[in-house]
Amino acid sequence: MQSSISDPEARLKERALALGFDAAGITRADGAWPAGDRLKTFVELGRHGEMAWMETTLERRSAPTAMWPEARSALVVALNYGPDHNPLDTLAQTATGNISVYARGRDYHDVIKSRLKQLAGEVASITGGDVKVFVDTAPLMEKPLAHKAGLGWQGKHTNLVSRELGSWFFLGTVLTSAALEPDPPETDHCGSCRACLDICPTGAFPAPYQLDARRCISYLTIEYAGPIPAELRPAMGNRIYGCDDCLAACPWNKFASSASESALYARAELKGPGLDELAALDDAAFRDVFSGSPVKRSGRDRFVRNVAVAIGNSGEARLVASLLPLLQDEAPVVRGAAIWALARLDP
Fold this sequence. Notes:
Elements: H1 8-18, E1 23-28, H2 35-44, H3 52-56, H4 58-61, H5 64-67, E2 73-80, E3 98-99, H6 108-127, E4 131-134, H7 142-148, E5 153-154, E6 160-161, E7 169-176, H8 195-199, H9 217-223, H10 233-236, E8 239-241, H11 245-248, H12 275-279, H13 283-289, H14 300-314, H15 320-323, H16 332-345
Parallel strand pairs: 3-8
Antiparallel strand pairs: 1-2, 2-7, 4-7, 5-6
Helix pairs in contact: 1-6, 14-16
């Protein structure tokens, strides 16, 4: 159907919404980029932990044009994945594993990229410019772009917050060599609120708007391959893949709605899986259970390490039996976590 809207910016945003995205905005990709300096400081302080790729790609991440010199504009889109419940409620179910809301459905990369490619085709057709698409898989700082495009602001937890979508949304970006009229950036609406900072169980925020990934449960359970620091293990509770505490605490979520994209709905078996069942997963079973899920990214050994820590935090003596086979596991990080957990449950 031919759009009745004449200017290209409005037509592209209309098309983004028609494709199922919940918000869309445009910004210049070749303007001033202070986010690059903030990232450099983050890496210099070592707060990226063992994510060496952040350091090796630092120059390319310094600005959108450092990665693609021809980039002139960015069309940034948001897709809501809001939960149908308060994810903090599952933290009390200590015999089950708590998986981050974003990872309970289909892998968002697959959901977003197909329709983002369609949108990129529209950008190329309408503007005549070259295009590139990005969904969290390239050295592009998408949150600052989304802020500049008016989709939200980076809150004190460093994640993007929207007055309409709260904290629960994915981002995708189409960069183009075409010059488009930008939208105004969103302003910061955090005010004096400290909810996201105060709820963090491991104290991962040295100051408002600053994150130390080395203390972040999402980093520790997904990115970090070594033994989780012993002093942080008790605070992990039953969080076995990611952490939603700082997102869930944001007051702006009262305006958010649950996801409308069915592919992002939580799979029933991932809403509260039993820790004893997860501890028994070998590599083949892990791949089968988490086929098509973001969880597969961590790999079996890292994931079962997390499960063992959660069992140690559960206070459930009946779960001791599920730890015993892990004492002979081939992976040292799994064996170490099992020994720690066993000492917690059967001192």
